Amino acid sequence: MLRVNIIAVGKLKESYWRSAESEYLKRLGPSCKAQVIELPESRLPSEPSQKETEKALAAEAALMQPYLDTRGAYNIAMCIEGRQLTSEQLSETLSDCTVRGYSTVNFFIGSSFGLDEKLKRDCALRLSMSKLTFPHQLARVMLLEQTYRAFQIAEHTKYHK
Question: Which domains does the chain carry?
Answer without folding.
Answer: 3-154 (3.40.1280.10)
